[in-house]
């Protein structure tokens, strides 16, 4: 039994499980905590002390969970630490909390693992995968498990909210600025148009939960659902039309409600960049590939 911790810019994820004889991941526990480790880091180059404390507290909780089922732990950190000039301020207390080192992975490795988490179930054939995080967005194109184009872009829901969004609700000009910056980053990765884009991570899965009108998050109901670009745009516009307090709900907590509009604007820009008419929502990610 293995436990993999994915320490992201906005959330910290734990997946405990093992592979079966067919290579599929059998899940024992799947946990998520929003700690916003990267709060302010893209602007200041430094980690916020309270964000460090919140994240380390989550890691202590995850170690207890892993120990309770006898799972060995692996922990990786992504763009939230890559943008910080002082990652050691987090890495040392994280090591003490977990009893193992946290490995900082590159954007290239993050993109590869995110893609493989889908490709190993998708089978042969063209595939496009996007992983929209708090500080970076990984966009990968391939055929089966063979990667043809892979980039980690400095585009994320937290990063762009902090950079462009001040209004509550955001103004049209602010959303246009998010869209323009996302498109400007993506243009450096030209892709052959493909009708489907598989989406990963909190922005995408939360969007599916909202469009399904769920009262509680359910992987079984969300994973594999398909949505048109128009449906995603309609959700983004609806959330952008109301203040933060009215966005918060059972599947959209405070820690994501303030960045979801920027995240969905990035998602729409990515769908259009890929020439996709359909978003396929996948509850997957690099932690699945690591297991």
Question: Concise description?
Answer:
The protein is α/β, with parallel strands linked by helices. The chain is built from 14 helices and eleven strands. It has two domains: 2-104, ATPase, nucleotide binding domain (Nucleotidyltransferase, domain 5), CATH 3.30.420.40; 107-290, 2-Layer Sandwich (Nucleotidyltransferase, domain 5).
Structure description:
There is one protein chain. With 291 residues, this protein is of the alpha/beta class. It has 2 domains: 2-104, ATPase, nucleotide binding domain (Nucleotidyltransferase, domain 5), CATH 3.30.420; 107-290, Nucleotidyltransferase, domain 5 (2-Layer Sandwich), CATH 3.30.420. 45% of the residues lie in helices and 23% in strands. The protein has 14 helices and 11 strands. It has helices spanning 41-44, 49-68, 79-82, 88-98, 107-122, 157-164, 172-186, 202-211, 219-222, 229-240, 244-247, 254-257, 260-273, 286-290, and strands at residues 2-7, 11-19, 25-34, 72-77, 102-104, 126-132, 137-143, 146-153, 196-200, 226-228, 278-281.
């Amino acid at each position: 039994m293995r436990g993999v911790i994915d320490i992201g810019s906005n959330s910290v994820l734990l997946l405990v499980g093992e592979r079966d004889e067919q290579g599929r991941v059998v899940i024992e526990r799947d946990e998520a905590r929003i700690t916003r480790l990267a709060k302010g880091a893209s602007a200041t180059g430094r980690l916020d002390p309270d964000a460090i404390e919140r994240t380390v507290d989550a890691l202590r909780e995850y170690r207890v969970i892993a120990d309770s089922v006898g799972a060995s732990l692996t922990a990786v950190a992504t763009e939230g630490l890559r943008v910080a000039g002082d990652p050691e301020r987090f890495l040392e207390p994280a090591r003490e909390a977990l009893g193992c080192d946290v490995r900082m992975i590159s954007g290239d490795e993050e993109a590869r693992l995110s893609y493989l988490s889908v490709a190993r179930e998708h089978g042969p054939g063209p595939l496009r995968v996007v992983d929209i995080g708090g500080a970076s967005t990984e966009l990968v194109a391939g055929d089966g498990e063979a990667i043809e184009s892979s980039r980690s872009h400095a585009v994320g829901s937290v990063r762009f909210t902090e950079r462009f969004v001040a209004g509550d609700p955001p103004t049209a000009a602010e959303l246009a600025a998010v869209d323009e910056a996302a498109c400007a980053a993506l243009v450096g990765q030209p892709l052959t148009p493909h009708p489907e884009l598989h989406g990963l991570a909190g922005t995408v899965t939360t969007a599916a939960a909202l469009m399904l009108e769920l009262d509680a998050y359910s992987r079984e109901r969300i994973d594999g659902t398909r949505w048109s670009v128009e449906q995603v745009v309609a959700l983004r516009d609806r959330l952008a039309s109301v203040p933060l307090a009215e966005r918060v709900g059972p599947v959209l907590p405070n820690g994501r409600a303030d960045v979801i509009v920027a995240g969905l604007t990035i998602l729409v820009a990515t769908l259009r960049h890929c020439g996709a008419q359909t978003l396929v929502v996948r509850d997957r990610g690099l932690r699945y590939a690591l297991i």
